[in-house]
Design goal:
InterPro entries: Extradiol_RC_dioxygenase (IPR052537), Glyas_Bleomycin-R_OHBP_Dase (IPR029068), Glyas_Fos-R_dOase_dom (IPR004360), VOC_core (IPR037523). By secondary structure, this protein is α/β, with parallel strands linked by helices.
């Protein structure tokens, strides 16, 4: 038996209501360019809208002008999607509260998650949306996941309950030491003063 190795998220498709509500939210609030539209090839009564969340991948929405929107919280039963989280820069994250307030969108947070800060609000159809802002930049040639797994190993090795910035800083240092060569025989911390 062998795995089917995935190489990233291709797209996520959500059930929307009318076309304009989707465009107004995904592009008009979250800034995702509206890049493609065609009929839903499995249900010609629906339209299929495609948005770029910023990494060239896709968020797609099935819309139908006869499908009313429902602003109640989407189901959180087992097997349901709890929320969608989108990466934002620190500059955008610092402006998010004011920009949500300007639209009258209720939110909660920001929340300190140790390795990121989070802000939550609902889309027009009740889907919980998270704006996530990493507290670190991975070293050159590494991904955020590389830093996270290294920080996890450091945290659990020390018996710490949850991730903190010290785990991230130590993980970044460890990754740099492993991945980047040095002419020095001793790369330990020193005080030149």
């Amino acid at each position: 038996m062998r795995k089917i190795q995935v190489q990233g998220m291709h797209h996520i498709t959500l059930m929307g209501a009318d076309r304009q509500t989707s465009i107004d939210f995904w592009e008009g609030v979250l800034g995702m360019p509206f890049v493609f539209e065609q009929p839903n090839l499995d249900n010609p009564g629906d339209s299929h809208l495609y948005f770029d969340p910023g990494d060239g991948r896709l968020i797609t929405i099935f819309t139908n002008e006869n499908r009313p929107g429902d602003r109640h919280r989407t189901a959180t039963d087992p097997g349901c999607v709890h929320h969608l989280a989108f990466n934002v820069s620190h500059a955008s994250f610092s402006q998010a509260e004011a920009r949500l307030k300007a639209r009258g969108i209720h939110y909660f947070g920001p929340k300190d998650r140790g390795f990121m800060d989070s802000l939550y609000f609902k889309d027009p159809l009740g889907m919980l949306i998270e704006l996530a802002c990493y507290k670190f930049e991975p070293p050159f040639g590494c991904s955020h996941a590389d830093v996270m797994i290294e920080a996890h190993r450091i945290r659990t090795g020390r018996g710490d309950d949850h991730i903190e910035e010290v785990h991230l800083a130590d993980a970044i240092e460890a990754l740099v030491e492993r991945r980047q060569q040095s002419l020095s025989d001793d790369r330990s911390a020193r005080n030149p003063f």
